[in-house]
Amino acid sequence: MKKVKIIEENCIACGLCESIAGDIFVVEDVARVIVDKVKEDQIELVQEAIDSCPTDAIEWDE
Ligand code: SF4
Predict the structure, then answer these.
(1) C or N: which end of the chain has fewer Cβ atoms within 10 Å?
(2) CB-CB contact of 50 with 25 (8 Å)
(3) What is the topology classification, in CATH, of domain 3-61?
(4) Which residue's alpha carbon is at the smallest distance from atom 4 of ligand 1?
(5) What mean pLDDT do residues 8-25 have?
């Protein structure tokens, strides 16, 4: 299973990642990842959040 992380200094707390994948991200003053590992069936949604983040603040943690 893959991990995902937030680059906090890039995050502008727009809330988009939480609206796309609310089981993975919560956004308060910055976005946070609320799961340890991303399950197979969540990968597509996380990738959508990565692709949609306006500041490239989300990336896979390889
Ligand atoms: S989409 Fe990007 S900038 Fe917006 S809250 Fe999520 S990580 Fe932060």
Answers:
(1) C
(2) no
(3) Alpha-Beta Plaits (3.30.70)
(4) 14
(5) 98
